Amino acid sequence: MTKELSSNQSIGLVLSGGGVRGMAHIGLIKAMKEFDIEAKYVTGSSVGALVGALYANGNSIDDMLSFFKTTPLFNYQFLTIAKAGFMDTDKYIRFFKAYFPEDTFEALGKELHIVATNIQDGDAEFFSTGELIRPLLASAALPPVFSPIEINGQLYADGGIMNNFPSEPLYDKCDYIIGSNVSIVSKLEKKDLKNSYQLTGRVTGLMIYAASKAKLKSCNLLFESSELEHIGMLDRKAIEKAYTLGYDHACRQFEALVKA
Questions:
Q1: Where are the alpha helices (H) located in the chain, listed in sequence order?
Q2: Residue 210 burial by CB count (10 A; 0-12/13-18/19+): exposed, middle or buried?
Q3: Residue 121 CA to chain centroid, in angstroms?
Q4: 3-state secondary structure of 35
Q5: Active-site residue (options: 46, 139, 147, 212)
Q6: Upper half-sphere CA count for residue 89 (Cβ side, 13 Å)
Q7: 3-state class (DSSP) for residue 83
Q8: CA angle 233-110-46, nearest 5°?
Q9: Where are the domains of the chain?
Q10: Cα separation, 15 vs 25, whole angstroms
């Protein structure tokens, strides 16, 4: 690699939230492996927290994809009327234990920091020690689809609500920060804003992007594929497509670095 990115540097990896689009993170990680780039520190929000945990755990690319393909997003047996949310997020714990049997941050092979939103206090909080699975579930519990997760008597939900690109833990740890942002905001035509659903989605996307903009610019290397915007956040049929887009985009950028 070039002097700007070398194997003897301390590398940090930031993975944003973004639903199914987050499969592009896995594509990036595959490209990193092929170009002999390894992150020592990982941070993530929402789906980025899940991918980051699998990467930090040493799971293969096939295992990462299998996790998202086999873990049910919606299951009628998980429906709840006793909690705030359509799906009882606690019911997913058994699926996570198959991948994280020791259930601690300390059991991971890399230092991992994930963020979740304390919806009672209104704060974004980082988790990096102790119990792993419940904070992971909390970070990805998008309301109102999934119920909040209770941790130490407080209710936590999706990290992307308040911090969709959690790069903060890396600033004092790394020589080089690689960012992967799948919450893409590109120019739209008027025809793409024809109803309230489209308008709401656009406004939400703009708010999330605005909150992350300065942090995105602070990365030494940032991956953003505009093609991901055409993939629905909950479209499980697009898992392979998002993964391939992320891989192809990363390979092109790494190849450009090598040639520079």
A1: 23-34, 47-56, 61-70, 93-97, 133-139, 196-217, 239-259
A2: exposed
A3: 23
A4: coil
A5: 46
A6: 26
A7: coil
A8: 20
A9: 9-254
A10: 7
Which of these ranges, 50-64, 127-141, 146-160, 178-192, has the smallest mean pLDDT?
A: 178-192
183 is catalytic: no
Q: Is the pLDDT of residue 78 over 60?
A: yes
Q: Measure the CA angle with vertex 175, ends 132 and 228; round to 5°.
A: 65
216: helix, strand or coil? helix
- Can you tell me the mean pLDDT for 45-65? 97
Counting every residue written for the chain, the total comes to: 260
The pTM is what?
0.91
**Which CATH number is correct for 9-254, 3.40.50.300, 3.40.1090.10, 3.30.565.10, 3.40.640.10?**
3.40.1090.10
3-state SS, residue 2:
coil
Neighbours of 190 (CB within 10 A): 6
Could you tell me how far CA 126 lies from the centroid of its own chain? 14
Active-site residue flag, 158: yes
**Cβ of 198: how many Cβ atoms within 10 Å?**
13
pLDDT given at position 231: 86
- Burial tier of 227 (Cβ tally within 10 Å: 0-12, 13-18, 19+): middle
**Which of the following is catalytic: 16, 139, 147, 158?**
158
